[in-house]
Write a structure and sequence with these properties.
Layout lengths: L1 E5 L6 H10 L3 E5 L9 H8 L4 E4 L13 H21 L3 E6 L22 H16 L3 E6 L2 E2 L6 H7 L6 E4 L3 E2 L2 E2 H14 L4 E4 L6 E2 H12 L5 E4 L25 H13 L1
Parallel strand pairs: 1-2, 1-3, 3-4, 4-5, 5-10, 6-9, 7-12
Antiparallel strand pairs: 8-11
Helix pairs in contact: 1-6, 2-3, 3-4, 5-7, 7-8
Amino acid sequence: MKVLVTGAHGMLGKDLCPVLDDCGYDVIECGRSEFDVTDYDAAKKYIERAELVVHCAAYTNVDKAEEDPLNEAVNAKGTENIAKLCAELDIPLVYVSTDYVFDGTKKTPYLPDDSTNPLNAYGLAKLHGEEAVQKYCKKYYITRTSWLYGHHGKNFVETMIALADKPEIRVVNDQTGCPTWTVDLSNAIADLIEEAPEYGIYHLCGGGHTTWYGFAKEIFKLCGLNVNLNPCTTEEFPRPAKRPANSIMDNQGRCRDWKKALKDYIELRIE
């Protein structure tokens, strides 16, 4: 089966394409150099070659998204273009979305059918993408993930390691979520394609949960780094984009525990 991956040269795409290739799929790798997702006609020339599309291409700078129109253009309009084309060509679509579609007020892990209410522009644009997929496609998997990190892009793990020699590191301890390694997400997407369960929304994120401070603490422990790490509140560390206090999602066992994944990530990084 020919599987087209948008955002193939991004942090997730660089891990997903080899995973799909290992599964025996004929992978069509597409990044911005191949086509811009906001260009409907350019996208069509590639998508009409596929039998399934995994839409990873996204604008991911959460804070900058508050004022950058490219956020809505890529995450909403671009996804709408992909959804329309997949519907027109009767091609199943896998759309990678985010935990930031939720407002964080729920006290228990979020389920796929829970109400959405984004707190920031990034989450809103990704929700608009979800809505476009649901509006135009009959064959779709919306896969929400969270706190993503990988070897092929900027991420929280690498940021923390780069800061290790600072006199003090303060990290937010009142936002809770599910760290997710791109390799684990890639394997979960491949499993979803292979299993072909009922179309709909799935949560593909690391198992268990932690705060950003807890995440940082585990990173330094696994790296054997002795740092002056201290917790702080969201109020003490303001950012342009508001984050949900609780973005824990129930992954129904589709990804392993986040600590096990992080251990493997760190070990591969050191090799």
